[in-house]
Amino acid sequence: MTDQDTYTLLVSEDKDGMRLDRFLTEEMPGMSRSRVKALIDQGHISSLDAKKINPSAKVIGGQTFVITIPPVAAADPEPQNIPLDILFEDEHLLVLNKPVGLVVHPAAGNWDGTLVNALLFHCGDSLSGIGGVARPGIVHRLDKDTSGVMVVAKSDLAHRHLAGQFEAHSLERAYKAVVWGVPSPREDRIESLIGRSPNNRKKMAVLEIGGKYAATNYRVERVLGRAASLLECRLETGRTHQIRVHMSHLGYSIVGDPVYGGGGRNKLKLASVDVRNQINAFKHQALHAHLIGFIHPKSREFMRFTVDVSNEINELMGLLENV
Q: How many domains does the chain have?
């Protein structure tokens, strides 16, 4: 859908009696019920038979609805006093340890309470501007439920140079990942094409054709009991969900991954009920951005920062040792 499209939908006889909000979400893939309700409230959905419109109204076979999608309003993030774990900061950039649960950038479903909101509050007047706007320069992202080290630009100079290093894949980046099983061989390089899954557009997948080239180097650091292992994964590229997709594709999905995981639950059969329940209660991927290294855009000094895995992941590994 484009920003200002207008749609005309005719109710087929087999949809007679269906709730309007359900009918519209079925006929317009990607449109949520909450979005439909907002459009109705704002007067962007009408019926040619002039009947009153409300989300729970029952549609009638042969009825016609006109839906106008207004331009998407640009998000204007507000500074919010959210605590940050800052590892380094100067006039050009800052490096921080992002916790699990913190979304990086405002988007649908998370317009506030994000890292950007926190950075706007923390940096204040020290932001010299990215593209003429006083905002932090997000040059890379971590998933909401991936913790670890990130670098953020505070100036146009830093933004250009850091973005260039990411584009050239010249940065040093390493992650710690707790996976089901013990990969064989214990050290290897994975390369593939990664793109949207043809079976589920909300997921990424290894593809034979299309997608973008991706390469990951992994090494088993520690075997955890009989069920899992701790890996160090070093990125050569930075595709969406790259490590999660690559390890799942090899059959060693990340413990706790709600999207690409689940393949290792059968490995817990020998664990006690208490240990099994505690491991199953871990509801996000055990993936942590452990290291980042880059050239400072002003001083040209190579800088490297490391952050140990969280106490939560350490506790998970302790439980897995007992399986």
A: 3
Of the residues 143, 145, 156, 188, only one is catalytic, namely 143
Task: Name the nearest CA neighbour of 177 among 119, 113, 273, 264.
Answer: 264
The secondary element (H helix, E strand) that includes residue 205 is strand 204-207
Whether residue 85 lies in the annotated active site:
no
Q: What is the pLDDT of residues 228-255, one digit of tens each?
A: 999 999 999 989 999 999 999 999 999 9
pTM: 0.73
DSSP state of 27: H
Instruction: Please indicate, yes or no, whether residues 288 and 228 belong to a single structural domain of this protein.
Output: yes
Distance between CA 86 and CA 94 in Å, rounded?
7
Residues 189 and 303 in one domain: yes
* Predicted confidence (pLDDT) per residue in 94-141, tens digit: 999 999 999 998 776 777 899 989 998 898 877 755 544 556 788 888
**Tokens 């907002």 belong to which residue?**
38
Question: Which burial class, exposed, middle or buried, applies to 53 when counting CB atoms under 10 A from its CB (0-12, 13-18, 19+)?
Answer: middle
Range of the domain at 49: 6-68
